[in-house]
Amino acid sequence: MDIDRVAGEEVCCLDAELLQLPEVSSSVLKENPQLAEDLFSQWISLSDTSRLVKTLIDDAKAGNPINIPGSSTNASAGGVNSLPSMFPAGSAPPISPRSSSGSPCTSKQKTSPSSLGSPLKLVREPVREVIPQFYFQNGRPAASELKENCLSRINHLFRNDLDGLLIDEFKPVTKIVCKLPSFFSYALFRKIDVDCTGIVTRDAFVKYWVDSNMLTLDVATQIFNILKQPDCKYLTQSDFKPILRELLATHSGLEFLQNTPEFQERYAETVIYRIFYYINRSGNGCLTLRELKRGNLIDAMNHADEEDDINKVIRYFSYEHFYVIYCKFWELDTDHDFLIDKENLVRYGNHALTYRIVDRIFSQVPRKFTSNVEGKMCYEDFVYFMLSEEDKSSEPSLEYWFKCLDLDGNGVLTPNELQYFYEEQLHRIECMAQEPVLFEDILCQIVDMIAPEREDYITLRDLKGCKLSGNVFNILFNLNKFVAFESRDPFLIRQEREEPTLTEWDRFAHREYIRLSMEEDVEDVSNGSAEVWDESFEAPF
Question: How many CA atoms are closer than 13 Å to the CA of 498, on its beta-carbon side?
């Protein structure tokens, strides 16, 4: 490389600080720029300087680290410049004192090339930051401590059974190692024992639970993976049947159903329908992992596993709730073909509903029937209807009845649509010799309760944002609840204040179960007294 050519190109932009001449004052060089150029030309022509520059260039080309002698730090620390000097020893002029602050040269050293200790400019490679892995296809691997603790528990449970565990012996593994409800034991066992050998070995369990990183997943994801079918991204109703069969077989609060398998089946169906009613918000029968995580099903399952009284698990699993739903359906299904029609449903709640709203239900606007029989509603359809009717404060119920009232399906309720349903309600009020309430007054009352964004129509969002939305539906098509709302039963008001955590459905199911139980007790007493009378009557003979 031509050193002279380099000197000629760089001298025009030479900074006096780059010369690193402690023997010469920088102020003198700045006042005489020609002197700085002459000094640099002499310095660059020295043989030592030429060798140094060539060495630096060769190191830079080879990618070797560049060690630059004579840096400003070394000069200030040792007072000696290792670069070749143009002045003989002892003949250098004195150095003028420098201020430690206020000098533009001093502040410039932090970012200027002078801090490199050489007129050559260095280009440093950017530091590459290593981003840790954040996505794992099979889940994040378990920490070593967590994995060791899990393996220790596994070894303890499998130590006496070297050949593996049978399905009846697998429940401690489900509870202690997996920390899942005990009624998941059968489903988990079958998930591991894919060949149906009837035995799960230690190695097979470790492969499924530890090696596949099931250990590190959250509980909802673990349950989702255990219940779903292979290569399926959602849960169906049939996926819940194995855990409910085991719940019925093992839970102490359901032992009384052991001799009535038909009611066991109905109970399991009712629990599944309730789960999908509240959690499957899309309503397509395909329960996704996101919906499972957003719901409260996991807490309810843990509660059912820990609580001996199944009726205290009011979310999904209460037998009393099932009893109320099933008895209501049985009362309406007069021919007991497990299907009900319009005339049957009109009798619900002592003829509380209007014909117009029943027609909308059977037009399958709010929900398509699963009965596959024209003009008939099956038990599953009735469960959805009853949960919506008795708790109009829940989001599924609001969506159900909003679709019924939205005659043109445009997503808003207009005054004309509200009036259409209230006309029959008004006629029924007049037939009962009650003082009629004009629709204009009802409309003002509804607008005051809902406080919609626009007064000319009501949206589903308006209804979900108001706690009194359920009363709007009762005003329009449920006469009994409309009258109860107008009368403001103080007992119900006090009950709501004392038990704010209970929903409308919880309160209704509790009252209805007591009523049905009392009716059954009276019937039993009547039958019993008749038997006693018969025995006493026949005794003398």
Answer: 7
- Which of 394, 386, 410 minimizes the C-alpha distance to 322? 386
Specify the range with the lowest mean pLDDT, choosing from 89-93, 210-214, 465-469. 89-93
- Measure CA 311 to chain center: 28
Last residue of one domain, picked from the residues 216, 238, 257: 216
Asked if residue 460 and residue 384 are part of one domain, the reply reads yes
pLDDT above 60 for 519: yes
pTM summary value: 0.72
Q: 184: domain range?
A: 142-216
Is the model's pLDDT at 87 over the cut of 50? no
Q: What is the pLDDT of residue 478?
A: 94
> Would you mind telling me the total number of residues written for the chain in this entry?
541
Report strand pairing: 412-413 vs 458-459: antiparallel
pLDDT at position 21 is 61
244-258 average pLDDT score: 94
In-domain check, residue 60: no
508 and 384 assigned to the same domain: yes
Phi and psi angles of residue 379, each rounded to the nearest 5 degrees, phi first: -65, -40
**Residues 351 and 445 grouped into a single domain:** yes
List beta partners, residue 458. Answer: 413
Specify whether the CB–CB gap between 332 and 344 falls below 8 A: yes
| Angstrom distance (rounded) from CA 307 to CA 299 | 12
Is 53 among the domain residues? no
Q: How many domains does the chain have?
A: 3
75 touches 20 (CB < 8 A):
yes
- Most trustworthy range by pLDDT among 463-472, 490-499, 521-530: 463-472
Do 450 and 481 belong together in one domain? yes
* Segment holding 425, helix H or strand E: helix 415-431
Helix (H) or strand (E) holding 479: helix 479-487
- At position 344, the amino acid (one-letter code) is N
Residue 59 bridge partners (DSSP) = none
Q: What angle do CA 116, 120, 122 make, to 5 degrees?
A: 60
User: Whole-angstrom Cα distance, residue 428 to residue 418?
Assistant: 16
Two structure tokens written together for 357: 């709203």
